[in-house]
Write a structure and sequence with these properties.
CATH superfamily of the largest domain: membrane protein fhac: a member of the omp85/tpsb transporter family
Largest sheet: 16 strands, antiparallel
Strand order of the largest sheet: 13-14-15-16-17-18-19-20-21-22-23-24-25-26-27-28
Strand content: 35-45%
CATH architecture of the largest domain: Beta Barrel
Distance between the termini: 62 Å
Number of helices: 7
Number of strands: 28
Structural class: mainly beta
Number of domains: 4
Oligomer: single chain
Length: 657
């Protein structure tokens, strides 16, 4: 027996016949000729005309005078016919492991044991008979048969019993497995991509998945135009084996060429080449094409985008065919307006709005205007940002903003100019090394507590800084890591102008690690150390000092509340910082729970220490989405001081670290 194509069931031959009935008064018998009319020398007289009813000759009434009256049936409405109930039983499917799948797809089961009549039950039973045979053949039982018996009840009040009896027969297994067609380079790529082996049961889902794997793997290895034809399986009833042959035409071995852009061209070929993670002449790999498509979508400038390989007929020096990528897409609206309303302990209520033109200066030259109106902070700013500036995920941006802050630690009116270049990780491409480097210049008028004077004073500071950051990331996720570690260093040499020039160096180092203790349990830890060298805290602007406490720091304590305080109990900041945290994260499905302990302190000395630490502890809940977990943490300070809250709540996206 030979099975060809995508069907895994043996065709059933149906026999039929026709019955011809000859009806009619005085008609001759079927198959006989009617006798010829007898000849007569006399001519028959013509028939007399039939009498006509006078009513048939009367003109019809006009349509506008014609009325229709609905006739209401007399007496009570007839009762609906009684419904028939039935019970479904299966025999023989348990041995094949298909009983549950049969019940999920059964026409009899989907009707929940109710039918209008027995004929309807028989029709559903016929569907289920074919279903049972199809399911068994999909699992390799190609000689399978199914019988259905509809047992009528002994009286009108009984239930009909429908019995489906399956006879699977022997299970066929793969014999020889072959791939036919032109050979690849290196040889055997198609066969290696086909995970089928002699002795495996001939399962339809496994065979189809294996063939799909060939369609996926060969384009990843230089064959974008692979064609997989219909399989051929020859079954041997004597041995119970089926020899499998898959014809594969790999097409030309190809390398990347250039780009063709059509439709609504958002980016030109040159910028598309900047975003891609491959260069012309490299061996074609469909995974890199998929990455390019996702990167174009991530720019938010495409409403839709498609990329298809185009055979150019050009041959590269290495013998491969040059393939251009044809990019088609529709442009998305380049302007967006967004806003948010929130409340944060220590910062009060805030209302923020942002207007963005993502492609004001193509390609990907965005203008961003943002504003914040809050009870304790206000801000107006403008940023020009060039994304993918000469290199994938490299960003160049310049910012100008004015702000006002009125918090417990200080009150500041600040004007800032800054510029930086950075290369950051994204969910599409998490990089091992990332960096950021830039300059910042600000003029700020701040009121803070002066330790030497013993009171709050206002001073104007002029600060110039070189700000940098470098990160080494070996974790497995940006927003929800479960293994690996991260190391980050933020050096910032600064000069404070005002009552004399005071150069100083500000540095912050942070490390985090993640250990999968069990399949659903992760132990995470974080340590952060910071120091100011070359100046005393009272010699620099209060906004440039170190603070600790609150979300992202030591949970349970108020925002910036740890460390030295003035006589009124308000924080004044310090020259060094120590923070650490330990979390146990347990996930079940899309939900998770977290238990954590945080600790930290701010010191007047330049060197961070581990003395006089303050601890907070709490529990958290996580809801896992496709863009990262939504975080809800509830914490309490373990060593409360006057003014500390009993409980603090934090809501954010992503894990705490």
């Amino acid at each position: 027996m030979r099975l060809t194509g995508a069907r895994f069931t043996t065709p059933r031959l149906l026999a039929g016949w026709a019955i011809i009935l000859c009806l009619g008064t005085g008609a001759p018998a079927c198959g006989q000729q009617a006798p010829a009319p007898a000849e007569s020398s006399e001519t028959a007289p013509p028939p007399e005309p039939a009498a006509v009813d006078p009513e048939l000759l009367r003109p019809l009434a006009p349509l506008d005078q014609f009325s229709v009256e609905s006739q209401q049936p007399s007496g009570p409405a007839p009762a609906p016919p009684p419904r028939v109930t039935y019970t479904v039983r299966t025999e023989g499917l348990e041995a094949t492991g298909l009983r549950d799948r049969f019940h999920d797809l059964s026409a009899l089961e989907q009707s929940r044991g109710k039918a209008s009549n027995v004929a309807q039950i028989r029709a559903r039973a016929a569907e289920d008979q074919a279903l049972a045979e199809t399911l068994m053949r999909s699992e390799g039982y190609y000689d399978a048969k199914a019988d259905v018996v509809v047992g009528l009840p002994p009286d009108a009040s009984g239930r009909v019993v429908v019995t489906v009896t399956a006879t699977p027969g022997p299970r066929y297994r793969l014999g020889a497995v072959q791939v036919s067609g032109p050979e690849t380079q290196p040889p055997g790529l198609a066969r290696d991509a086909l995970p089928l082996h002699t002795g495996q049961p001939i399962l339809a889902p496994a065979v189809e998945a294996a063939e799909a794997n060939v369609r996926v793997r060969l384009p990843e290895q230089g064959y974008p135009f692979v064609q997989v034809q219909q399989r051929d399986i020859v079954l041997d009833a004597a041995t119970g084996a089926g020899d499998y042959t898959l014809p594969v035409t790999p097409g030309p071995r190809s390398s990347f060429g250039g780009y063709q852009v059509s439709g609504d061209p958002v980016f030109g070929p040159k910028h598309i080449g900047v975003i891609s993670r491959f260069r012309a002449g490299q061996l074609y790999d469909s995974r890199k094409v998929d990455d390019l498509r996702r990167a174009l979508v991530a720019s938010s400038l495409y409403a839709s985008v498609g990329i298809e390989p185009v055979d150019t007929g050009r041959r590269a020096p290495d013998g491969t065919e040059r393939v251009d990528l044809h990019v088609t897409g529709a442009a998305a609206p380049p302007r967006t307006l967004s806003g948010s309303l929130g409340y944060e302990t220590g910062l009060g209520a805030t209302l923020s709005a942002t207007w963005t033109h993502r492609n004001l200066l193509p390609p990907e030259g965005a203008l961003i205007l943002n504003g914040v109106a809050g009870t304790q902070q206000q801000l107006l700013g403008a940023t020009f940002r060039r994304s993918n500036a000469g290199q994938r995920d490299r960003t160049v941006e310049a910012t100008a903003q004015v702000s006002r802050q009125d918090i417990d630690a200080y009150q500041a009116n600040t004007a800032t100019l800054s510029a930086r270049v950075s290369r950051q990780s994204t969910p599409l491409w998490q990089k091992r090394w990332t960096y950021s480097a830039g300059v910042e210049a600000l003029v700020t008028s701040e009121q803070g507590y002066d330790l030497s004077l013993g009171r709050r004073v206002r001073r104007t500071y002029e600060v110039a800084a070189l700000v940098g950051q470098v990160t080494y990331d070996r974790s497995d996720s940006l927003l929800d890591p479960s293994r690996g570690f991260r190391l980050t260093l933020r050096p910032s040499p600064e000069i404070s102008l005002g009552d004399g020039t005071r150069p100083y160096f500000k540095a912050l180092a942070e490390g985090s690690a993640y250990w999968p203790i069990a399949q659903a349990f992760v132990l995470a830890g974080r340590l952060r150390l910071g120091g100011l060298f070359g100046a005393q805290p009272q010699d620099i602007a209060p906004s440039r000092r170190f603070y600790a406490g609150g979300g992202g720091s030591v949970r349970g304590y108020g925002y910036q509340s740890l460390g030295p305080r003035d006589p009124g109990g308000d924080p004044i900041g310090g020259s060094s910082l120590t923070e650490f945290s330990v979390e146990g994260r347990y996930r079940f499905g899309d939900l998770g729970v977290v238990a954590f302990v945080d600790g930290g302190q701010v010191y007047e000395s330049s060197t961070p220490r581990f003395s006089d630490l303050r601890y907070g502890a709490g529990l958290g809940a996580r809801y896992y989405t496709n863009f990262g977990p939504i975080r809800l943490d509830v914490a309490t300070p373990l060593s409360r001081r006057p003014g500390d809250n009993v409980v603090a709540v934090y809501i954010s996206i992503g894990q705490a670290y």
